[in-house]
Amino acid sequence: MDDPLMLARVQFALTAGSHFLFVALTLGLATLVALMQTVATLRGGGRGDAVSARMVRFWGQLYVINYAVGIVTGLVMELQLGLNWAGMSRVTGGVFGAPLALETIGAFFVESTFLGLWIFGWDRLNRWVHLGAIWVVTVTAYASAYFVLVANGWMQRPVGFELVGGEARLTDVGALLTNPAALLAFGHVVFGGLLTAGFFVAGVSGWHLLRRTAEVAFFRRSMRVGLVTVLVALYPVVMFGGVQFAYLQPTKLGGGDAEAAVADFTARFGPDDYMAPGLAGAGEAVMVMMWSLMHLVAIVALVKVWFGRWLVRGRVFHVLMVVSVPLPYAAMLAGWVFREVGRQPWAVYGVVKTEDALSDVGSGTLAVSFVVFAVLFAVLVAVNAWLLVRFARRGPEGASLGAAPPAEPAAVMAPTF
């Protein structure tokens, strides 16, 4: 542990990868909860309203748990970005920092404010206002993801800037915001989040149906929601992922363009290993394999959705859905490795090398930082998993989100003489 650069890179990989696990489920589950509440609100007092309303409370509670713990990981990750990568901020802060500022001020604060209104406004706000609150939360969550991907897309494919005195200055806001490396990645993440939420909802429903729950109607409908979401999201995920190959760095793809890029970088920055590391290719292979497995599960899901009575039967199918929950997570992490590791040795491709982006800190300081952040994120991931499992196992009867507070016992009046 005497290489500061490797320590900083591994530390950021662990923290960013861990945070993204929360983001994907948050995006997808927020959308599903908003759709569930829309159905419940539109039905009013209809026959299906009671089940729909209970679904909102149950799945909404799991969404809030994942969101709350995920916020902590995001804040800690941004702290680490400032501590370990000051060199990047000095050169690219004028461009890279702009979308991150928009994400924090324009999206995150709006999202958290309306989430508070949604949580504490249950049965206090007009039902349409309450429905509007969860949709604002959902839309701003996607806006937050978009601005983060604008920053990341610029690192992958820097556009709309110029270097003045060794510092990047933004010259074209439109080019920054419409960068294909950001827009296509955003579409990929949107449907990846839905895919993650679909498998999560189907997996939790499968667990309860496997145990022959009394809440058959509740989890049959939840299972259908999860499976339909998987079917809707599966092909757009691979479509947005495939189109991104047209905009990948030539050193990641190989071939004649890669040789030309290496020659250009060598002339400008000196000799180095400018080709993508082998780990990037391994990430791509795992990502494709995970998608193939999800595709096979989706074929089974299609049959189950078509023949609705089978959703409650078939213990093997229920087990399959439970064990399939990690598949989209593994695919996301593998895809992230392919995208980020494949950019090396660049922090901002063709502009700032990773070794130049590192803060001026010693290996001892980074070693302590690495241990602290690794332990902290391991605890947060474990706590989130424990809370999700605990509240998911309780079922809809154990959902406390939106429940009325217990009534105060009537005061006993002392007799007066």
UniProtKB/TrEMBL annotation:
<protein>
    <submittedName>
        <fullName>Cytochrome d ubiquinol oxidase subunit I</fullName>
        <ecNumber>1.10.3.-</ecNumber>
    </submittedName>
</protein>
<keyword id="KW-0479">Metal-binding</keyword>
<keyword id="KW-0472">Membrane</keyword>
<keyword id="KW-0813">Transport</keyword>
<keyword id="KW-0349">Heme</keyword>
<feature type="transmembrane region" description="Helical">
    <location>
        <begin position="319"/>
        <end position="338"/>
    </location>
</feature>
<dbReference type="Pfam" id="PF01654">
    <property type="entry name" value="Cyt_bd_oxida_I"/>
</dbReference>
<keyword id="KW-1003">Cell membrane</keyword>
<dbReference type="InterPro" id="IPR002585">
    <property type="entry name" value="Cyt-d_ubiquinol_oxidase_su_1"/>
</dbReference>
<dbReference type="GO" id="GO:0016491">
    <property type="term" value="F:oxidoreductase activity"/>
</dbReference>
<feature type="transmembrane region" description="Helical">
    <location>
        <begin position="285"/>
        <end position="307"/>
    </location>
</feature>
<feature type="transmembrane region" description="Helical">
    <location>
        <begin position="95"/>
        <end position="120"/>
    </location>
</feature>
<feature type="transmembrane region" description="Helical">
    <location>
        <begin position="20"/>
        <end position="42"/>
    </location>
</feature>
<feature type="transmembrane region" description="Helical">
    <location>
        <begin position="225"/>
        <end position="247"/>
    </location>
</feature>
<comment type="similarity">
    <text>Belongs to the cytochrome ubiquinol oxidase subunit 1 family.</text>
</comment>
<feature type="transmembrane region" description="Helical">
    <location>
        <begin position="366"/>
        <end position="389"/>
    </location>
</feature>
<feature type="transmembrane region" description="Helical">
    <location>
        <begin position="63"/>
        <end position="83"/>
    </location>
</feature>
<keyword id="KW-0812">Transmembrane</keyword>
<feature type="transmembrane region" description="Helical">
    <location>
        <begin position="181"/>
        <end position="204"/>
    </location>
</feature>
<keyword id="KW-0408">Iron</keyword>
<feature type="transmembrane region" description="Helical">
    <location>
        <begin position="132"/>
        <end position="155"/>
    </location>
</feature>
<keyword id="KW-0249">Electron transport</keyword>
<keyword id="KW-0560">Oxidoreductase</keyword>
<keyword id="KW-1133">Transmembrane helix</keyword>
